[in-house]
Amino acid sequence: MSDTPAKPEAADPAVQASSEPQDASLRQRAIRSFVVRAGRMGSGQVKALAELGPRFVLPFTPAQTLVPSAVFGRQAPVVFEIGFGMGDATAKIAQTLADHDFIGCEVHEPGVGALLKHIDERQLSNIRIFQHDAVEVLEQMIAPASLEGVHIFFPDPWHKKRHNKRRLIQPEFVARLVKHIRPGGYLHCATDWEPYAQQMLEVLGAEPALENTATAYAEKPAYRPLTKFENRGIKLGHGVWDLVFRRKS
Questions:
Q1: What CA–CA distance (Å, rounded) separates 12 from 243?
Q2: What digits encode the pLDDT tens for the residues 33-88?
Q3: Cα gap 34→243, rounded to integer Å
Q4: 227 a known binding residue?
Q5: Which residues make up the binding site for S-adenosyl-L-methionine (predicted)?
């Protein structure tokens, strides 16, 4: 992860100083949206970071609430994505849902560089990026009930049973996350690991603020493209499970 950028001037219209005191329990919490891993940067990714980063990568500014209309220059529904990987699906969705704005969080620099390349190639203006832990961005920069949707696609399944507790989709995290989704907004998760899908269904189904849009697992929404990895898995007979829940009004 890169060093945290300096805070912007107070007059920056894209952020608003928060008067809410930080909960000590949040500072001590161990929830993380990522796993540290190494990755090499290609020359195209390096160039994209240098040339496009200043425009599309937002600084993490604790306790300053992001104002999406100031960032994007328009009023539009905002979708927050946790862990966009190399960004191909993110770019395709943003192109498909051009009337929505997208905020993606990814700590791994090669992925950030790759998404910036997609943004340039597709000439997208409705994506911004935080190269920072999504949990901290949500808690410290995203206003309550402000998001139209949240996407969490193929998070680390932590296959070994003793590591299951490290999975992102846990009751405590979901309870915090839901507060940032507007009433009627949605949470869309997808995984190719069936035991994790079962856990997601159980955890999301137990959250009082959410309701399932399907009987159990949802049909893949048309806006979510199939990834190369997913296509390969489907050809091998592997399953993929989508879960789409809405925040109750």
A1: 37
A2: 444 545 678 888 999 999 999 999 999 999 899 999 999 999 999 999 999 999 99
A3: 20
A4: yes
A5: 81, 106, 133, 156
| Residues involved in catalysis | 156
Structure-block tokens of residue 177: 């996350």
237: amino acid identity, one letter: G
CA atoms of 93 and 119, how far apart (whole Å)? 12
Q: What is the DSSP string of 97-161?
A: TTTSEEEEE---HHHHHHHHHHHHHHT--SEEEE-S-HHHHHHHHS-TT-EEEEEEES-----SG
Q: Where are the domains of the chain?
A: 58-247
Q: Give the mean pLDDT of 83-104.
A: 97
- Is 81 assigned a ligand-binding role in the annotation? yes
What's the full length of the chain, in residues?
249
CB 35 within 8 A of CB 106: no
Q: What is the distance between the alpha carbons of residues 128 and 133, in angstroms, rounded to a whole number?
A: 15
| CATH of the structural domain 58-247, one choice from 3.30.300.20, 3.40.640.10, 3.40.50.150, 3.40.50.1820 | 3.40.50.150
Q: Which residues, in sequence order, are CB contacts of 37 under 8 Å at separation 6+?
A: 108
Residue 106 annotated as binding site: yes
Q: Is 192 annotated as a binding residue?
A: yes
Asked if residue 148 lies in contact with residue 102, where contact means CB atoms within 8 angstroms, the answer is no
